[in-house]
Amino acid sequence: MSTLKTLSEYVEQGKGTEAKSLAQKLLGENISPDTIIKEGIVTGLDAIGDKFAAFEAFVPELMVAALAAQEALEVLRPKMTHGTLHKTLGTVVIGTVEGDVHDVGKNIVAMMMEGGGFNVIDLGVDVPMAKFIKEVKYQEADILALSALYTPTRLAMKDTIQALIDEGIRGNIKVMVGGAPIDQAFCDLIGADGYAPDAPQAVKLAKRLMQ
Amino acid sequence: MKEDQIYKDRRYKINELRAKHEKMTARERVKMAINFEEPDRIPIDNWMVPEIKKRCMNYWGCESEEELLAFLGVDVRDNYGPSYVGQSFKEFDDGTVADLWGVRRKVVTYGKGTPHEGIFKEVAWSPLEHMTTVEEINAYQGWPSPDWWDYSKMREECAYWHPEYFVLNKGDRLDRTAQLKPMMYLRGIEQTFIDLARNPKIVECIRDRIVNYFVEYNPKVFEAGGDEIDMFMMGDDMGGQRGPLISVEMWRRYFSDAFRKYCDITHKYGLKVMYHTCGDVYKLIPDFIENGLDCLQSLQPQATNMDIKRLKQEFGKDLSFQGGMDIQQILPLGTPEDVRKMVKYAADNAKKDGGYIFGTAHNIQADTPMENVAALFEGYHEYGVY
Predict the structure, then answer these.
(1) What residues of B are in contact with residue A126 (Cβ under 8 Å)?
(2) Burial class (CB in 10 A: 0-12, 13-18, 19+), A77
(3) Topology of the domain comprising A2-82
(4) What are the backbone dihedrals phi and psi of residue B375, each rounded to the nearest 5 degrees, phi first?
(5) Other C-beta atoms within 10 Å of B164: how many?
(6) Which residue of B108, B189, B327 is in closest CB contact with A99?
(7) Interchain contact, B328 vs A181, CB within 8 Å
(8) Which of B110, B190, B240 faces A152 most closely, judged by CB atoms?
(9) At the fourth CATH level, which superfamily is domain A91-210?
(10) What are the residue ranges spanned by the domains of chain B?
(11) Residues B293-340 pLDDT 10s
């Protein structure tokens, strides 16, 4: 168990190379990918998330922790897809809305969600509404996560939710929104299911929405 | 100015308030404010995206941008520095265009087909992103030179606004004196954050190249502009919506030395320094002051800890402020009444003893209703009076 703790520390400290080789070693010891994710990676990401919330860690530290989690996941992924034991928390389609090409916040959210146990489909930036709808259907997604940096571009979020309604699939999916100009009031205004101010809280929100 | 009755009616309130309250030139007004004296009214600066500027001109019947600013009582005039005479910026087949640093940008349209349609020039390619060593970065051929500029017309361009207006030398948004921002353009934002945590040598190398450029460039700008420049503005975003992007320790480690250097050079030419940063930088403000800052710009009210009342109380003796008007919620989504309340709140809490210039926390964005823009400027002239 102590090595799982070490893995969580590597993730928390953003030590990607170390996290990767330790994850490999743990797999070799027949520890299931599920356990490695839950007790190694997620624990590490939770720890850095708590520090971020307490202003003991900032964007660079959060970024390298998310990166380290990704690097460890790379080793686990082949086993996850082939194993019957592994079940993701849900499928998230994520992207920055049309007219907006900013993706740093969105990428950290995507990385941390993946590290947190979700299956994440990242559509990138400047994503047309029709593409979100198509992917949500195709992936049978549980959550659609939309990001925007500017106030004019955030209006595309509202249109995307309307498109989900028009397509008759709004009831099947939770929509979460985030980005600098977004707050709870805007989230309520456009009828999204949840808003998170930062990546660690976005992961918590996604878990809540899946309940 | 168009003289049709509809425009005259729209201009009436601002004209009336200005006629009643203004007793000095714009330049005198701003100079008093930044020297912590109380002028006739709080000075006004103006940041707008081009789409809003155009809409304002149509609304108030102004036939040029100059007419618009003069009518609105905007006291500050921007100077973008010398003229670029270096090699022409290369255009690529994919529609991107290189900038001063060799960073490739593309035009992105938002709100296509809607009334708030507009464009932003976004980074499309960062030349240093995939480099892994200091040697590779040093060998980069695209580092700019202060010799790529013609400084000869600067003095005349600044003098054009004198003696009436206050001239702020701020550079172009993409060439503005900074450290972290050009690094992010050159290296990519994500890679820069990763570097800050993992690759200190790469951070230092890129930072030094950037700093050396501005340390050489700025004195040439100040010499060229002479006493026709009234103030200098640099800008580097260090704040996020809920706190600084990096820790205070990291700021001290990587950025405080050159911040001080930039301020020292400016002070040597008898100019004060304004510094733009978005977001919540509350924890960094004591360091900004200690390193020579005179005026903090933006004061994004939706960011945590950036309430103007508190900032004025805690730092108002050492630091003047510009900004504080919310472009994220109140201007685009609020009512004209909300806008007036916001202006009054800032005026009531920041005008005492000077040290405050009205301004929006960033460019007024294209999704802002015209009646809110009108309420903003009418509010400035109504509540800004001493």
Answers:
(1) 108
(2) middle
(3) 1.10.1240
(4) -60, -35
(5) 13
(6) B108
(7) yes
(8) B110
(9) Cobalamin-binding domain (3.40.50.280)
(10) 5-87+127-383
(11) 999 999 999 999 999 999 999 999 999 999 999 999 999 999 999 999
Record the tokens describing residue A117, joined without a space. 């146990």
ipTM: 0.89
Nearest CB to B108 within list A101, A183, A185: A101
pLDDT in tens, B238-295: 999 889 999 999 999 999 999 999 999 999 999 999 999 999 999 999 999 999 999 9
Contact B241 A197 (CB under 8 A): yes
CATH number of B5-87+127-383: 3.20.20.210
Structural tokens at position B19: 């006629």
Domain ranges of chain A: 2-82, 91-210
Chain A residues within 8 Å of chain B (Cβ atoms): 14, 55, 57-61, 63-64, 67, 98-102, 104, 107, 126, 150-153, 155-156, 180-181, 183, 185-186, 189, 197-198
For chain B, the residue count is: 386
CA B369 to chain A, closest CA, distance in angstroms equals 11
Quick check: B242 contacting A, CB < 8 Å? yes
Cα separation, B342 vs B302, in Å, equals 12
Q: Where does the pLDDT of residue B76 fall: very low under 50, low under 70, confident under 90, or very high at 90 and above?
A: very high
List chain A residues with CB under 8 Å of B114: 155
Least confident of A35-49, B114-128, B208-222: B114-128
**CB distance B27 to B165 below 8 Å:** yes
Please name the helix (run of DSSP H) or strand (run of DSSP E) that holds residue B125, with its range, or none.
Answer: strand B118-125
Cβ atoms within 10 A of the Cβ of B9, count? 9
- Residue ranges in chain A whose pLDDT is less than 70: 1-2, 81-86
